[in-house]
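Researcher: Structure for this, please.
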Amino acid sequence: MRAAIRTVLGDIAPEDLGICDAHDHLFIRTPMLPGQELDDAEAALTELNAFATLGGRAMVQWTPWGMGPRTDELPALSRQSGVHVISATGMHQAKHYNPRDLAGVYDELAGLFIHELTSAPVKAGMIKVSGDYHRLDDHARHIMAAAAEAHHATDAPIGVHLEAGTAALDVLDLLCGTHGVASHRVILGHLHRFPDPRIHRQVAEAGAFLAFDGPSRVHHGTDWRLLDSLVALADAGHTHQILLGGDTLTPTARSRAEGPGMPFLLSRLRPRIEHELGPDIAAAIFTENPAHAFATQWRQPPTADRH
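Model: Predicted structure, token format:
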């Protein structure tokens, strides 16, 4: 079986993915950011077009179930912009949901995730879960167990929101040690927010992908360490495990507002990475690595269409 990347327009060959923003959002809503919802399809298309103008060919929306991913609108945006879009299933921290919204699904999450990966009208291409600050609470353990079950049923990659970049080793212990997920199927997000080179090296040595996402945002005081972190990983031989993403969360963070938005990855970060590390490593980070991270030997569980 040949690996494929599942986009909102269907499966594609990994070599067709192109330059990729490996973690971003076109739509998202959360009670933690009242009045700051990403819910404007026209603005989302403008952002995709700006990214495409700079050579961007793919983006991964990590917005999980229940947080307004507006999945049914993603195919049209992908067609109009020419940008491949990978959607996510999964679940974030409990604080991002009204408990009433979880009734009836919380104990059946693996089935929900499998359905969205294999049988939904617009299929997801990854599972997104979340840890807590320096620990894994009961909610995190519950959703990660469900994600692991869905992964084993489908081979979908699992992307992990690390709160402030912490608890990376705990996540790998749980997903890989307890639940048997292969480490190269795990993408650890927000590691730039906890720029400990020893932790970065440990999780890289374990085999996980390391995502540095949300660069150049004012409230992330560690952003100036981003290039240092990338250089350290490259020097340690882990170039092919690095991913970069924009993680745009609010309307003001888009490029036509206060920014930096999706285009920043290619207009500003890529030239700096090419200067510091060379064009071959930049190509690995933006093109080759996402193609490997999101490529999947898709399996179709016998009960996937019964959700």
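Researcher: Any notable elements?
Model: The first strand starts at residue 5 and ends at 7. The mean pLDDT is 94.
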